[in-house]
Each structure stands twice: as C-alpha cells, then as structure tokens.
Amino acid sequence: MTQSSPDKPPARPISAFTTRPAQFERAEAGEEARQTARDAFEAMARTGPVTPRRLAERLESQGLEHDDPRLKGTWAALGRAPDTPFDALTFCDCLPRDECHLVSRAVAGALVTGEFGPFRQRVYDLFHYASQETGGQVAAYIPELAKADPDAFALGGCTIDGQRLSIGLNEGDETREFCVQSVMKPINYAIALELLGEEVVHTYVGREPSGQSFNEITLDRLRRPHNPMINAGAIMTSALIRPTHDMNSRFDFVQRVWRSASGGEASSFDRATFESESHHADRNYALAYFMREHGGFPEEADLFTTMELYLRCCSIQTDVRRLAAVAATLANGGVNPVTERQVFQRETVKDVLSLMLSCGMYDFSGEYAFTVGLPAKSGVSGTMMIVVPGVVGLALYSPRLGAQGNPERGVEFSRQLVRSFPWHVYAPIVSDPNIAR
Ligand code: GLN
C-alpha cells in the first residue's frame, strides 16, 4: 500500500507500467471474492457501523464515480436503505463478485495514489498556483481560436485505477469544450502504428525532434517529416490512416478511437473551427505540397483528402474530463482504466510516449523533457495532456500560449507537478535509495 499526504508525495517507483490487475479481478470468484469483501467489511467496521452511505462516501473519497461501469452493481446496492447497517454476511452478499477487489482496495486506501484526498488536494493547489501565470497570447492565426476566453482554465485527471478529478477556475471552465488541435497528433500516430506497424510508419515519418517551430517547412535527411508531433508529421500520419477509404468513414474511425480512449463518451466536432482553419491553411498546404514534391506520401494518399482529414482531426472537440481519460489510457498501457477496454497495444503506447517525451512540446520539447521529464502534448487551442506512466493522465485547458505555442499555465503546472511528486522520468535517481549504493 502506498501512503500519501500533502507533505509526503507517494514514494512509488513510477518508471515501469503497472497496469491494473484487470484479469485477476475478473477471475476472482467464489470464496476468494467473499474473503476480499469480508476484509473490506472488517476494515470499515473498525471505525463504525458499515452503512451503505459510509461505503458510498468512502468510494467517492477515493475518486470513484457513480457512472463507473466497474462498480455498477455496488452503486446500485448502495442506493437502497443508506443508513441501515450491513452485517458481514449481507455486505458480502450485496457486493458483486467481480467488484469486490476494487471496492476493497478503495476501502484500504490502496489504489495507485494511496489516499486520494490529499493527492487530489495537492493537484488542485498546483492548479491554483499555476492560475497566477497570466502571460502569453491566445492563438490568432486560426480566426475561430482567437475568440477563446483567455482566462479560462481547467484541469482533469484520471488515474490508472480510474479515480477521477476535475476543476475549473471560473464558472463553466470545468465542462467547457475545446478542440484538441495538435493533441490529435499522438492519437493519429497511434492509429497509424496500430494499422501499419512501426516499421512501415517510420518509412514515412521520422522520430527525431526538429528543433524548429511546429509548422516549419523542413524535412529530415531522408525527406520525411521529422516526427509525428509537428504539423508535417501529423499530416503524414493522417495520410496513412486508411487512405483508400472515403472521408466520412476515415473520420468516423478516428472518432471511434477517441471515444473509446475517452471512456465511451463521444467527442464532438467543432465545425466552425474546421471551416475557419480550412480557409487559413496555406502553411499546412505548403507543407503538404512540399512533402508531395519530395515523393513523401504513400501512393494511395491524395493530398486534399489528407488535408481534410488532418484538419478535421484538429477540430475534434472534447473537455478536460474526457481528455484526461485519453491520457490515462496512455498511462495505463493502452487500456482505458474505467471501461477496461484495450484501445491501443502496449508497444504502440511505448512508441507514442517516447515521441511525446522527445517531441511533444514543439521546439520547447528539450526544455520540457529536461525540467519536467514527462511525456506531454500541447495544442494551439490551449489544451495539453500530460501522461505519468503507471500513475495518472492529466488534461489542461488554458488558451494563453507562450512563444513556442504551448499553454503557459500548463507548462507552469507541469513544473510544479514534478516538484511535488517524484514523476520526472529520472526522479528515482535522486529519490530512490535502491538505485545508487
Ligand atoms: N491545427 C493546427 C495547425 O495545423 C495545429 C497546430 C497546433 O496545435 N500547434 O496549425
């Protein structure tokens, strides 16, 4: 069990993926499940009568929500007679077998963050700290984006155990929808990897940081875009997604992946931004022509439909809660923590996170990798996702961007995050006594 309090961040090593033991939970049946339920009952009984209300409050305090499909039967059972105490037997009878393990871990405070309350509070404190950052400008080169409220600020989180948090600075921020813009890049890259495999994908696109701005007209030595996290590379990965299919089915396919990674909630499409950007896409067309001139596209791909798919994907709309679930799916090795659906293969996630770490923040990526040391991806709408492998996925929205096109508050939040939690990829070198003798 991990311990956590505001002054003592969790000491759990975070270098490896530790996915939820989903198979084990499903397999746990009969006597074993009853024993797990009995343990949970006894743990709760030590501090008072075990009522449905107390158990519900305990689950909520651990970040487990009422729409959680993993606890469907439990929530249904807890809705009845909230203040009538259970005895051990009725408690064990009312918990569905395949839900006992999660309930008992939550009761014990043994989910990935340890006690969730202090963890969430610390994250919210960092959010408020970052809200004091008021530098930067809203992106104006896409007219529709220029309408964004510069002061909006929201944060969502989802751990690999499916514990959720979200907060907004101003009224309505927490549920505000925004388009993903460049945060589509890791997803289109992941889809291309799933469809074609790493070897094929990387004959078309490199995996080296470009060191240049996100829409620079430049290719690598092999005349490929430098990586999938900048515009040229994402135009290329869009070209690789079922190029012979019609536009609607290609875009539906991408949206289904977003939906699945978001935990089953559909993402909408911001038509106004799509049209606005389509009329101001000279630079992106220039990139596409440049790549076509160098014979970069696969034979089946058409430049115009590729551009349409790319721009549509940039205009997929979401909110911080759904985006946090996408980040959590990556943190959890490709399995959405709440629905337990395998969205991406682990190998795919490894590749995606590697490039988010080295290239996810445009020409600020080296600085970000140095100071923050986490895979992240930003977009010019002001959104950003941060992945802490094996722990949590976080999503932010704050439209004011710094010089390199990253949300200023998101960057400040990231810096503070790794001061509070040992999550920089090399933090264990400093904090883990087992590494250096
Ligand atoms: N749609 C934007 C563009 O193509 C995406 C860029 C970004 O978010 N940095 O310019």
UniProtKB/TrEMBL annotation:
<dbReference type="GO" id="GO:0006543">
    <property type="term" value="P:L-glutamine catabolic process"/>
</dbReference>
<feature type="region of interest" description="Disordered">
    <location>
        <begin position="1"/>
        <end position="38"/>
    </location>
</feature>
<dbReference type="Pfam" id="PF04960">
    <property type="entry name" value="Glutaminase"/>
</dbReference>
<feature type="binding site">
    <location>
        <position position="284"/>
    </location>
    <ligand>
        <name>substrate</name>
    </ligand>
</feature>
<feature type="compositionally biased region" description="Basic and acidic residues">
    <location>
        <begin position="23"/>
        <end position="38"/>
    </location>
</feature>
<feature type="binding site">
    <location>
        <position position="277"/>
    </location>
    <ligand>
        <name>substrate</name>
    </ligand>
</feature>
<dbReference type="GO" id="GO:0004359">
    <property type="term" value="F:glutaminase activity"/>
</dbReference>
<dbReference type="InterPro" id="IPR015868">
    <property type="entry name" value="Glutaminase"/>
</dbReference>
<protein>
    <recommendedName>
        <fullName>Glutaminase</fullName>
        <ecNumber>3.5.1.2</ecNumber>
    </recommendedName>
</protein>
<feature type="binding site">
    <location>
        <position position="362"/>
    </location>
    <ligand>
        <name>substrate</name>
    </ligand>
</feature>
<keyword id="KW-0007">Acetylation</keyword>
<feature type="binding site">
    <location>
        <position position="182"/>
    </location>
    <ligand>
        <name>substrate</name>
    </ligand>
</feature>
<feature type="binding site">
    <location>
        <position position="310"/>
    </location>
    <ligand>
        <name>substrate</name>
    </ligand>
</feature>
<comment type="subunit">
    <text>Homotetramer.</text>
</comment>
<keyword id="KW-0378">Hydrolase</keyword>
<feature type="binding site">
    <location>
        <position position="231"/>
    </location>
    <ligand>
        <name>substrate</name>
    </ligand>
</feature>
<feature type="binding site">
    <location>
        <position position="380"/>
    </location>
    <ligand>
        <name>substrate</name>
    </ligand>
</feature>
<dbReference type="GO" id="GO:0006537">
    <property type="term" value="P:glutamate biosynthetic process"/>
</dbReference>
<comment type="similarity">
    <text>Belongs to the glutaminase family.</text>
</comment>
<dbReference type="InterPro" id="IPR012338">
    <property type="entry name" value="Beta-lactam/transpept-like"/>
</dbReference>
